[in-house]
Amino acid sequence: MNKLVINYGINPKEMTKEALEALLDPRQVRGKAKIGIKPNLIKDVPSESGATTSPEIVAGIIEYLLDYGCQNIVVLESSAIGHDTDRAFYACGYKDLESKYAVKLLNLKDDKVTEVRAAGMKLTICKSVLDLDYLINVPVLKAHCQTKLTCALKNLKGCIPDSEKRRF
Questions:
Q1: Most buried residue among 80, 100, 117, 160 by CB atoms closer than 10 A?
Q2: C-alpha pair distances (Å), 164 with each of 101, 115, 125
Q3: pLDDT tens across 19-38, in order?
Q4: Which of 120, 127, 116 shows the shortest CA–CA distance to 159?
Q5: Is residue 47 within 8 Å of residue 127, measured between CB atoms?
């Protein structure tokens, strides 16, 4: 059965941790698992713009995982075509998360790629994404000129190389 948690407040980090406590069984989280967190850092603008995932939400996820002994956490992203992911990590406050929590930031634009087959298609995907045990997708709900709505599925375009992004 799927679960849904609705909470209210003014502290995104604490609200995120409360939601995860309500949703997940801590036994599901394995300490040695390689866990990727995929925010939406489409470009180098702070989350107050509404375009990128708040670092406070990701901090809540990281703290939750650390509380349950997870040590192998990576925040990974490939910003939109024409945008610099490393600049986005800095402008969006993720460099602070890297130093505060000792998590790795991975610019998928620099990653190796691999081809996979799915639904009768050949897809090129960043290799580091396939090496994860778990991927936590942290999108931003936005309007979009082509898709009308951008959210969870579209955020995963950040897991494919720029050469594939225009296909989808």
A1: 160
A2: 32, 11, 8
A3: 999 998 877 777 789 999 99
A4: 127
A5: no
Over residues 57-104, the pLDDT tens digits come to 999 999 999 999 999 999 999 999 999 999 999 999 999 999 999 999
Determine whether 16 is exposed, middle or buried from the number of CB atoms within 10 Å of its CB (0-12, 13-18, 19+): buried
Q: Of 60, 102, 55, 100, whose CA–CA distance to 77 is shortest?
A: 55
Cβ count within 10 A of residue 140: 20
Tokens of 135: 């991927």
Q: Do 151 and 143 contact (CB within 8 A), yes or no?
A: no
Overall pTM > 0.85: yes
